[in-house]
Design a protein that fits this description.
By secondary structure, the protein is α/β, with parallel strands linked by helices. The chain is built from twelve helices and 17 strands. The protein has a four-stranded mixed sheet with strand order 1-2-3-15. Strands 6-5-7-10 form a four-stranded parallel sheet, with helices on both faces. A four-stranded antiparallel sheet has the order 13-14-17-16, with helices on one face.
């Protein structure tokens, strides 16, 4: 008989727990170590127990944790300036999570529409997208499985396939109430599906032509994960709205929505708010994260190690039937198989590797940005035999 739990049944966790971490390694309660290739789902940018982050957080906890946004705090302004400078955007609203950042983006788009005289504004969203689990972000998400049971969904979303600019132009011709386009630079939960650079540039041009906001969700793929601060920067564009979270605080909960151009003046006092957002502890975590990423050269490291890891997997699976595309950028990579592979996550744990499977057939890897080529070699050494063994079996009927 299973032990009683006081938790709601929202997760089915693995039957192991971690007691501590160090660098790219996690240690279970028996002392066995695991190569962390998930980073708390793209959260632990600096890995575990990074001394500069630990020292900064200890100092901040001893000084001040929370006051509310009713009072000024220099860390809030400092972090906002850092994000604006690195994004070439205008201003920032801080919150606590990616869901909250995406919810704020949706509110910006709707108010932008109302301010322009559109009574029922619509937002273009994407197949296979994931933006969160509140009713609005769930409605923007392109996954019927996670939406089931929560109908009626929030109206005002128009869905198109990713990387199909003609579909987006068709929406422009047929839907006069559209005010914004909302997409992930790389879809994470949807299976590590990158938006092509040419598509992002074409979408930017169409938004400029139509007076729409281009809103790029960088919650999972941002904060240096692809080798630039924000994944859309590989396309040489600047969005109007950019939600951030996950890796921005290296494990301390934080969210942000960065705005530019007309979007930067949509919110006014009373339009939006937060109790915990912009608290000094979260601000210190994010400021330290950005400083360490830059001082330790982790943007270049993420790009170079990610490219090396992708090439190692391509080499390892060159003759393996059943392996589809190996895709992504930097340290946000996915290996798509031609069959469901959910068991790989548990098998990897047995082999001392932490990763997960998304979209049923995609092995997702999101290691900390301190990941090195040596770690990449170890990951390939441990994961490749598991994939080959799975694919050697007859496919399920």
């Amino acid at each position: 008989m299973a032990a009683p739990t006081y938790l709601m049944s929202t997760y089915a966790p693995a039957a192991i727990g971690f007691g501590h971490g160090d660098g790219v390694w996690l240690f279970d309660h028996r002392g066995r170590r695991y190569l962390d290739c998930l980073a708390g789902i793209a959260v632990n940018t600096l890995g575990h127990n990074h001394q500069k982050l630990v020292e900064a957080l200890r100092e901040q906890i001893g000084r001040l944790i929370h006051t509310s946004n009713l009072f000024e705090h220099p860390l809030r302004e400092r972090l906002a300036k850092m994000l604006v400078e690195r994004s070439a955007m205008t201003n920032v609203f801080f919150c606590n999570s990616g869901l909250e950042a995406n919810e704020a983006a949706i509110k910006i788009a709707r108010k932008y529409g109302h301010d322009r005289g559109v009574d029922r504004p619509e937002i273009v969203v994407y197949e296979k997208a994931f933006h969160g689990r509140s009713l609005a972000t769930l409605s923007a998400t392109g996954n019927p499985k996670v939406q089931k049971g929560f109908e009626p969904l929030v109206e005002g979303f128009v869905r198109v396939p990713l990387n199909d600019i003609e579909a987006l132009r068709g929406v422009a011709r047929e839907r006069p109430n559209v005010v914004a386009v909302f997409l992930e630079a790389i879809q994470g939960e949807g299976g590590i599906n990158p938006a092509r650079a040419d598509y992002l540039r074409d979408a930017r041009a169409l938004c400029d032509e139509r007076g729409w906001l281009l809103m790029i969700d960088e919650v999972q793929c941002g904060t240096g994960r692809t080798g630039k601060w924000f994944a859309h920067q590989w396309a040489g564009i600047v969005p109007d709205v950019m939600p951030l979270a996950k890796g921005l605080g290296s494990g301390v909960p934080i969210g942000a929505v960065v705005a530019h151009g007309a979007a930067a003046s949509v919110f006014t006092p009373g339009s939006h708010g937060t109790t915990f957002g912009a608290n000094p502890l979260a601000m210190r975590a994010a400021v330290t994260t950005i400083e360490v990423v830059e001082s330790e050269g982790l943007l270049d490291q993420a790009a170079q190690v990610g490219e090396y890891l992708k090439s190692r997997f391509q080499e390892a699976f060159a003759q393996t039937a059943g392996v589809g595309e190996i895709r992504g950028r930097g340290l946000m990579l996915g290996i798509e198989l031609e069959r469901p592979c959910g068991e790989i996550a548990a098998r990897a744990l047995e082999a001392g590797v932490v990763l997960n499977v998304t979209a049923e057939r995609v092995i997702r890897m999101l290691p900390p940005l301190i990941f090195t080529r040596e770690h990449a070699d170890l990951l390939v050494e441990r994961l490749a035999p598991l994939v080959r063994e799975l694919l050697s079996r007859p496919a399920p009927g």
